[in-house]
């Protein structure tokens, strides 16, 4: 590399000297073949050209590698931003399940005696759902009669149920959740095995 720089500087010095002489004489610089009659010069020029081409190729590869690294790190940053909290979100799902079960167990009789407490649990549940929504967590809530989709549902059992087709959801045991476009937890369902 240092030899190339040195030779390039020498060549530039020769060109500058020729231009200076020509400008002193007031004439335009004619085309000069510096390698005329000099086989060593031709070989040296060919070697320098080959070295230049190799360095250009290495430079382009390094530039492409740097660009790929930049794109990869940008994608990793985006994924960390979107999915970095998936472990915490997954750990919060049992809290949602327990609060849902508690609210389902409330009777009208209980609402009269402990209305304030139940209202507080409902408010907490709404706030939890708002937080889920803010962070891209959405419910996968299949209904009875929907088709079983192994991508977002987990079959907990199969049972023959009259009036249903094989592969229909017959019971929803737990709702599933998505984090943006990734499945956080599949919906847990019972599936019909009634022969068609």
Describe this structure in words.
The protein is α+β, with helices and mostly antiparallel strands and 196 residues long. The chain has 3 domains: 2-83; 84-135; 137-196, Head domain of nucleotide exchange factor GrpE (Nucleotide Exchange Factor Grpe, Chain A, domain 2). It has helices spanning 2-25, 39-83, 86-104, 108-113, 115-134, and strands spanning 137-140, 153-159, 169-174, 176-179, 182-185, 187-192. The strands form 2 sheets. The chain has a 3-stranded antiparallel beta sheet with strand order 1-4-5. A 3-stranded mixed beta sheet has the order 2-6-3, with no helix packed on it. The longest helix is centred in the first third of the chain and has 45 residues, at 39-83. It is elongated.
Quick structural summary:
With 196 residues, the protein is of the alpha+beta class. Helix content is 58%, strand content 16%. The relative contact order is 0.09.
Could you give the topology of this structure?
Blueprint lengths: L1 H24 L13 H45 L2 H19 L3 H6 L1 H20 L2 E4 L12 E7 L9 E6 L1 E4 L2 E4 L1 E6 L4
Parallel strand pairs: 2-6
Antiparallel strand pairs: 1-4, 3-6, 4-5
